[in-house]
Amino acid sequence: MTIEPVIQIRGLINRFGRQVVHDGVDLDVMRGEVLALVGGSGTGKSVLMRTILGLNRPHAGTIELLGADVARMDANARAATQTRCGVLFQDGALFSSLSVTENVQAPMREHLRLNQGLMDELAALKISMVGLPPDAGPKRPGELSGGMRKRAGLARALALDPEIVFLDEPTAGLDPIGAAGFDSLIGDLQRSLGLTVVMVTHDLDSLIAICDRIAVLVDKKVRVGTMAEHMEDTHPWIREYFHGPRARAAFGAADRGKG
Hints:
It contains ten helices and ten strands. It is of the alpha/beta class. The strands form two sheets. Strands 6-7-8-3-9-10 form a six-stranded mixed β-sheet. Strands 2-1-4-5 form a four-stranded antiparallel β-sheet, with helices on one face. Helix 3 runs parallel beside helix 5 (146-157). The longest helix has 18 residues, at 176-193.
């Protein structure tokens, strides 16, 4: 059985003025995998994600998202593709004036024609799926902890039953227990819903726990491989990232967890 790519990037160049962020990036994301985007500061991890989503227009290159050329989409095609993708931005990026339930319902109101009762049922289901209690629904984002806001943002990202979920630093700002719980949640949802997950992260624990492959942004290009393959890479930044003190601590904790 052949696994198809749901994202295909060829020759991508992103530049801002004279600053070239990406120079000839090639990347395939396969259906059903969890792919992490990692790299040093300024390597354009979030820029790459936004470009895939059509929020940033590249200088050159092509991006196919779910079989459609992102640059050539008209408004209807873009709207249709958006319903097949969910996005969790940093800290949830929720509407502060809306309740959690209303935030989850926002994509439904934009893209679907459903009665209020059905939207209430669906929002309650999504809120439960991400591990939030029912009483979180009526609350505003400001009444939630950081971890709960991220879960609420994830519930909104899942509102339209997407095929692909994009996560921007999903565990940033969480304590180790909260981060591990969020990793487990993403892994469980990916398996149960058959999601493809593209995750911008710097969290080595997340890479170990749930990622199938890792795309490392170095030298304005991408090197893609498994954790084992990156461990053998001799590129200086990759070697320091996967063999430095933080990496040794993360691998040590993972080994202890298996014991």
